[in-house]
């Protein structure tokens, strides 16, 4: 268990990384990372792990950007990552492993509405305290709108999709660590 201060610091670092690595980041993109880290949606829904969707992502042939990371921590607790499919493929990974990681993560993931509320409050406090370059009134209006709508799932903003070509699935960090260790061992044994 991490302290409240460490949780806050880690989440601030995650938000700043997103704003730096994936500009332009709009309100729905910040909200999406909070929703994914706490509810898993946007990457844990029924379609997210379908073989058709993963195969489409695997074969998309989208360019790899300098700012892309193989994995991105999106949860300040350290439990959930975004696995970038095109980078994993380039690194010698295989589609079956992506599918297995996605499916097992979806089955084991535990949603936490309490974490969502905590992360949203932290996001608003970062903006109010000028710790991130985002207007607090815009964040508060957007979050109030999402809260009154029951925190619906959203997609990345058009601007984000055009600039970043998101190509990832959500994976539990411990499952990734085991799969990556096995991948490295296989490479060494060859």
How would you describe this structure to a colleague?
- The structure is a single chain.
- With 190 residues, the protein is mainly alpha-helical.
- It has one domain.
- 59% of the residues lie in helices and 7% in strands.
- The chain is built from 9 helices and 3 strands, in the order H-H-H-E-E-H-H-H-H-H-E-H.
- Strands 1-2-3 form a 3-stranded antiparallel beta sheet.
- It is globular, with a radius of gyration of 17 Å.
- The termini are far apart.
What descriptive keywords fit this protein?
3 strands, 190 residues, mainly alpha, 3-stranded antiparallel β-sheet
Output the number of helix runs: 9
The portion of residues forming beta strands comes to: 5-15%
The separation of the N and C termini measures 38 Å
Biggest sheet, strands in spatial order? 1-2-3
Give helix and strand order, one letter per element, not per position: HHHEEHHHHHEH
Uncertain segments: none
Number of extended strands: 3
Tally of separate domains: 1
- Alpha-beta classification: mainly alpha
Which of globular, elongated, flat, extended, rod-shaped describes the shape?
globular
